[in-house]
Amino acid sequence: MRNPFIAGRWVTGPHFFGRRELIKDLIHSHENCQWVIGKRRVGKTSLLRQIEAEIHREGGGAALFWDIQGSYDASGLLESLHDAVEDARDMFPDVWEGIDFQPNTQNQCHQTLKQLVRSVHRHHESLVILIDEAEELINIGRNDTELLGKLRKVLQHTAGLRTVLCSTTRLEQLHQLMSLETSPFLHGFESHFLGHLSRDETLALIAQGMTDLAQAEEISTLTEGNPFETQLIAKHVFDNSDIESVCFEMETNPSLIQVIEVNFDLLTDQERDIIKDVFCGKSAMSLYTQQVEKSLISRLEKLGYLTVFPSQTISVCSHFVRKWLEARFDHSPAFHAKHVSDEWLGPQHQEAILRQLPSLYKCFIDWAADQKRMVDIHQTFRCSGYDGTIYPDRDTMMEDGDFDQPNWRVALDQLMTLIRTFVQTDLTWTLHRILQMADDTQGNYTETDFLDLMMLISEEMELA
What we know:
With about 475 residues, the protein is of the alpha/beta class. It is built from 21 helices and twelve strands.
């Protein structure tokens, strides 16, 4: 049997699973303009392609899939529209070959679009424009705000024309980048979230190439309905039935990590902080008392970043995202979410300081590499009230430095200053020893010597 799983490309027909209610709403809605918001690799293109196929199968109307990625400006947008029509003629000749559409090369995109609608109406009741990669409208708006306003007018006020556009949350930047004299571009678009597949939909997807129900359940549990992850893991398990080794390999898979990173970067600082908090243990809805927090959690759940269980506990979606977060937290304490309620670092945190010496050293190394150092040691680090992690306040004041020492030595001096300020220096023999070594001016010790001792101090505190 040929491997049926497809990761990273759009699918339709027998390879398309789920989304039935959303597709029904988008095809039969009385709204002229609709906006589908989803993460990268969640299936936005597949959704539009499936809608295109179903509209043509049902008859009575025409659909046009229009990928505007890379259009950049007015001429690029017009060229992408011409390409979309040519592609539609190739893919659905029964619908499009009879449509006499000869675009006027002197027209702008919005004029060509109106001409296309008139041509379609001679043969069909309506035209549904399916716009993919709609974030490109941000670039187009930067280059030609007037065109964006004209395009919006055509999409929203042309009889017999309906529009479905798909994008990530980045498209929300449209209203920040420009001020149209008329209404904002997205005003009047009904929004929908494209999240993860349900458990039953996920199992149905896996069942197309896997009969082992236990393995299917395990994959579903790992991915929590993330379509890209499900297809990717199932594709590898199909070729290698050892799911444990596949899972281990996928935790460091560059393609998967890149998708996770891109999706995380799409979020606002506040949304990222909520995900970090949930991961670090703030996982009960009752702990989020502000309405804005509750709204953000609801939004993140709809987008497939979080899972809210009936018990009102919250979890970060997917094993692989949790593994990625774990690696990011291990790499740098600066990744931690900031809370003004978290205490500034002080003598009361001396045990936490010693436990986290290696990660604090990493933080100082990063600053030294950027030729930066802390200004006020008393207002540089906070200690999390949820998991005890010491992290730098992202608004902390830093000063530029012109260091004549290796970065590791600059970082070490900063770390020793922190220890001497907040920690009882004779607490352990190993602590006393590292301070002695740091005072050496003859260059008798290497960075490795200090790192080994930091690890030993950290391990001693974990065992204490």
